[in-house]
């Protein structure tokens, strides 16, 4: 039986998250979480859905790739626009199938308790201390035990915010910090040393995401303080991850379902991380990244690592309502998705309202 693709549409869908500083960090002060959203129609009525994530204007870069450009036009095979443009979610029911064919024990545990998650949505850099306190209180009540705080713009602010959150979560909950590439190598080491009293488990993206040896130097300098280096959300290929692992430049692998183009590229990184015995703690959030990455992390646990030690998946509490099968979080754990597919179909009404620049939401903002 063969079927034909009869139409492909790509839409520029943006959410005005910058208005309330959701997603803000030391490098991205006004992100509008966005997608280049693809729908494929076939002659038998089946449809395919997929997207890649951007911070708004980035959609203008990845979108032509989503339309039709073949890979490698003027770019290296591992160039960043290629993989990001290919970060689409046509996973079919691969993951549901996989869960049936391996040992039942990890599968049962996932079905019962889910995969452990941490939250970033209490402490975006643009949030006030008052909002941070409120969100942290709510998160603790809902069972969250692992929290990530944005740092890197101003050391005094970082000390105050880390102290505040550490006081709120207590000594036994987990704190991570994320600088989003803001520092050079020496600055990263001294800045993070000043935050060591707050006992962060990791510093994320301390410097340029391409500086593998820089990350190795930071890892070495911070190891005696018990602080690991986490990176990967901007890492666009398995080749980069291979070198990070070979150089002992990271202690936590942060795959990103869209930045690494395709499920296959992500699986290659999961296998390498397992070989090097480095835990995978995926980047997620944005719009739709939690929906996609939940499949990858369940695959990692059930089929590759078989371990939850030092492992957790990022969660942010924004924009899930725009998906037909949003993630289910229970007691700070991702519960396995029950629907077949890669959870990447968006609600048509949401797509229409947020289409840029002529959806109703944007018309209102632009005409203000
Ligand atoms: C711009 C994004 O919101 C970024 O800050 C996300 C990120 O670094 C993370 O979630 O980790
Ligand atoms: Mg980050």
From TrEMBL:
Taxonomic lineage of the native organism: Eukaryota, Metazoa, Chordata, Craniata, Vertebrata
Cofactor: Mg(2+)
Catalytic activity: L-fuconate = 2-dehydro-3-deoxy-L-fuconate + H2O
UniProt GO molecular function: L-fuconate dehydratase activity; magnesium ion binding
Enzyme Commission number(s): 4.2.1.68
Transmembrane portions of the chain: none
UniProt keyword terms in alphabetical order: Lyase, Magnesium, Metal-binding
Residue ranges of every copy of the Mandelate racemase/muconate lactonizing enzyme C-terminal domain listed in the record: 129-225
PROSITE patterns the record matches: MR_MLE_2
Record family assignment: Belongs to the mandelate racemase/muconate lactonizing enzyme family. ENOSF1 subfamily.
Organism whose genome encodes this protein: Sander lucioperca
GO BP of this protein: amino acid catabolic process; carbohydrate catabolic process
Any Pfam family matching the protein: MR_MLE_C
Protein name, as recorded: Mitochondrial enolase superfamily member 1
């Amino acid at each position: 039986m063969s079927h034909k693709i009869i139409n492909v549409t790509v839409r520029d869908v943006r959410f005005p998250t910058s208005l309330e500083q959701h997603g803000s960090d030391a490098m991205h002060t006004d992100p509008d979480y966005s997608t280049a959203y693809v729908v494929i129609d076939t002659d038998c009525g089946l449809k395919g859905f997929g997207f890649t994530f951007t911070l708004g204007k980035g959609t203008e870069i990845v979108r032509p790739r989503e339309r039709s450009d073949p890979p490698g036009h003027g770019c290296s095979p591992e160039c960043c626009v290629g993989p990001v443009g290919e970060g689409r979610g046509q996973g079919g029911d691969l993951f549901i199938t996989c869960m049936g064919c391996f040992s039942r024990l990890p599968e049962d545990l996932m079905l019962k308790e889910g995969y452990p998650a941490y939250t970033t949505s209490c402490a975006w850099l643009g949030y006030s201390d008052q909002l941070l306190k409120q969100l942290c209180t709510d998160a603790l009540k809902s069972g969250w035990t692992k929290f990530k705080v944005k740092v890197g713009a101003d050391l005094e602010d970082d000390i105050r915010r880390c102290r505040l959150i550490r006081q709120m979560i207590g000594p036994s909950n987990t704190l991570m910090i994320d600088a989003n590439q803001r520092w050079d190598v020496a600055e990263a080491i001294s800045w993070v040393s000043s935050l060591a009293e707050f006992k962060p488990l990791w510093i994320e993206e301390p410097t340029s995401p391409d500086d593998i040896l820089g990350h190795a130097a930071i890892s070495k300098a911070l190891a005696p303080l018990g602080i690991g280096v986490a990176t990967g959300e901007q890492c666009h290929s398995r080749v980069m991850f291979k070198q990070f692992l070979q150089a002992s430049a990271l202690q936590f692998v942060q795959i990103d379902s869209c930045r690494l183009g395709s499920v296959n590229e992500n699986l290659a990184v999961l296998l390498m991380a397992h070989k090097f015995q480095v835990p995978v703690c995926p980047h997620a959030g944005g719009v739709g990244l939690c929906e996609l990455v939940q499949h990858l992390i369940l695959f990692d646990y059930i089929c590759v690592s078989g371990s939850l030690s030092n492992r957790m998946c990022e969660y942010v509490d924004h924009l899930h309502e725009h998906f037909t099968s949003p993630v289910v979080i229970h007691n700070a754990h991702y519960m396995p998705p029950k629907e077949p597919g890669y959870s990447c179909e968006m609600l048509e009404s949401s797509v229409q309202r947020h289409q840029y620049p002529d959806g109703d939401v944007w018309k209102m903002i632009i005409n203000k």
